[in-house]
Amino acid sequence: MATAVFVRGDDRELRPGWPASADHLSILLEETAVHEDGSRTCRVDFLVRDLALPYLVPGGEILILEGPRVVASARVSTVHSGD
Q1: Can you tell me the distance from the alpha carbon of 11 to that of 30, in angstroms, rounded to the nearest whole number?
Q2: Which of 81, 62, 80 is nearest to 72 (CA)?
Q3: Nearest to residue 51, comparing CAs of 17, 14, 16, 24?
Q4: pTM as predicted
Q5: Digits of tens for pLDDT over the chain (83 positions)?
Q6: 3-class secondary structure for 41-58?
Q7: How far apart are CA 49 and CA 54, in angstroms?
Q8: Strand (E) positions, the chain?
Q9: How many CA atoms lie within 13 A of 37 on its CB side?
Q10: C-alpha span between 23 and 58 (Å, rounded)
Q11: Are 19 and 31 in contact (CB under 8 A)?
């Protein structure tokens, strides 16, 4: 489990200290594949799904944080509904 923020456009310009100052969500990551270029495919879920749902769209960008520091970025490829 880690902390994450969704990239929603001009946040970097409009919110001082962004992404550390953004609304954070608890994200659950399960690695499912490692690719030759070092990138990974992961299954993603959120501790409070309802808060993440409005931002979960194919092509959406997520930043994974460790404290205030960005340690990874992710691009949503597919969204599955249900449990």
Answers
A1: 27
A2: 62
A3: 24
A4: 0.78
A5: 788 988 877 665 555 555 665 678 899 999 999 999 999 999 999 999 998 998 889 999 999 988 888 899 999 999 987 65
A6: EEEEEECCHHHHHHHCCC
A7: 10
A8: 2-7, 25-34, 40-46, 61-66, 69-75
A9: 3
A10: 21
A11: no
